[in-house]
Structure formats: structure tokens, C-alpha cells
């Protein structure tokens, strides 16, 4: 009897994940300019990134089942990019109390994909090295009338200080390519 209950619980969990969008396939395509594209009608966003990057999608723990995180990490030089995709979480206030963090710039208003966005810049000291972290936040309303939903996007990237100028140019190309879609694949 216990065995059947476990099978039922696992089956229901898998059905819930598939309905929530967490197990959706990443839609990637490669372009002539040596970039790949991430396209998601579910999260109503598309952007391009260097073709030699591997972007992985994983569900976020906690909260609702349709929250996800895209991650690229270069283990050899410490560079990483994370994109949080959080339906319904617009207006989220982010406080960072890491002891090694210094706020360099906060609440700068910029534009991403034609939407007003917020940019923050931090340094993090680790004794023998300093990293620079840059964060972009934007909210996008998708749908119309009673079927709309908000999606909060947070793009965060971290780079060793000496690599920051080159990585900044690379990330700017990614940010310039962001497009928000008018509807979701629900």
C-alpha cells in the first residue's frame, strides 16, 4: 500500500511540474553572428547570448512552481550570469546584506527591451580578489484584462574586477538584445 502511495505522489508531482512550465525545453537557435537565442513564450522573453555559452534552466526552490533561473557559469575565470524569471513577483524589493559587499550604484533607471528597468552595481571583496556584480531588474505585464500576469526578471552577472571592462561590453550586447513578448504560452 505504501508503495502505491509513493508512485501516486511522484506521478502527481511530475504532472504539476509539466503543467507549470518548469520542465519546458529551452528554445535555442544559433545565428550567423555567432550568438545563440533563448526564446520562451511561457516567460514572454527572448535574448541572444554568445554561442559558446551553455545556458541551463532550473526551477527555483520555494515559491510557486513556475519560477525559474537561467545560469551560465565559466568555472575557469569566475564569470557568471543568472537570469531569474519570476511570474507574479513585480515590486519585489531586494536587500543584500553580504558582509563583503559595497554598493557602488543603486536605483539607476535604464531601459531594457523598451521597458523601464533598474540597475545596481556592487563590489565584493574577498581579500585576495575583488569581484564586481551588476544587477538589472525589470517588470513586464503580459496579456490583457483579466488574463494578464506580471513577470519580474532579474539579470545578475559577476566578474573578477580585472575582467569587468571586457565582460561589461559582452553583457551589454546581451541586454541590448532582450525583447519582451506580448503574450505567454499558457
Structure notes:
- It is a single chain.
- A hairpin with a 4-residue loop joins strand 2 and strand 3.
- Mean pLDDT is 77; it is low at 1-28.
- This protein has helices at residues 2-20, 164-176, and strands at 27-30, 35-40, 45-50, 56-59, 68-74, 79-87, 101-112, 115-125, 130-142, 149-160, 179-180.
- The chain has a single domain, classed as Mog1/PsbP, alpha/beta/alpha sandwich (Protein Transport Mog1p, Chain A, 3-Layer(aba) Sandwich).
- The strands form 2 sheets. It has a 7-stranded antiparallel β-sheet, covered by helices on one side.
- With 186 residues, it is an alpha+beta fold.
- It has 2 helices and 11 strands; from the N terminus they run αββββββββββαβ.
Features:
single chain; 186 residues; alpha+beta; Protein Transport Mog1p, Chain A; 7-stranded antiparallel beta sheet; 4-stranded antiparallel beta sheet; 11 strands
Summarize the structure.
The protein is of the alpha+beta class.
Would you tell me which CATH topology applies? Protein Transport Mog1p, Chain A
* Series of secondary-structure elements, N-terminal to C-terminal: HEEEEEEEEEEHE
Strand neighbour order, sheet with most strands: 4-5-6-10-9-8-7
* Largest sheet geometry: 7 strands, antiparallel
Mean pLDDT: 77
What topology emerges from the helices and strands here?
Elements: H1 2-20, E1 27-30, E2 35-40, E3 45-50, E4 56-59, E5 68-74, E6 79-87, E7 101-112, E8 115-125, E9 130-142, E10 149-160, H2 164-176, E11 179-180
Antiparallel strand pairs: 1-2, 2-3, 3-11, 4-5, 5-6, 6-10, 7-8, 8-9, 9-10
Amino acid at each position: 500500500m505504501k508503495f502505491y502511495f509513493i508512485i501516486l505522489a511522484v506521478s502527481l508531482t511530475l504532472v504539476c511540474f509539466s503543467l507549470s512550465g518548469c520542465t519546458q525545453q529551452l528554445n535555442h537557435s544559433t545565428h550567423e553572428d555567432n550568438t545563440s537565442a533563448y526564446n520562451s513564450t511561457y516567460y514572454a522573453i527572448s535574448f541572444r547570448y554568445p554561442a559558446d555559452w551553455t545556458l541551463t534552466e532550473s526551477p527555483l526552490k520555494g515559491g510557486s512552481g513556475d519560477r525559474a533561473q537561467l545560469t551560465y557559469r565559466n568555472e575557469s575565470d569566475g564569470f557568471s550570469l543568472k537570469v531569474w524569471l519570476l511570474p507574479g513577483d513585480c515590486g519585489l524589493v531586494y536587500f543584500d546584506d553580504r558582509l563583503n559587499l559595497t554598493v557602488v550604484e543603486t536605483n539607476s533607471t535604464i531601459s531594457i527591451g523598451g521597458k523601464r528597468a533598474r540597475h545596481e552595481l556592487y563590489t565584493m571583496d574577498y581579500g585576495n580578489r575583488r569581484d564586481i556584480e551588476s544587477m538589472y531588474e525589470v517588470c513586464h505585464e503580459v496579456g490583457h484584462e483579466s488574463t494578464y500576469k506580471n513577470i519580474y526578471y532579474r539579470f545578475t552577472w559577476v566578474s573578477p574586477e580585472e575582467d569587468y571592462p571586457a565582460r561589461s561590453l559582452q553583457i551589454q550586447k546581451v541586454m541590448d538584445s532582450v525583447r519582451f513578448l506580448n503574450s505567454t504560452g499558457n
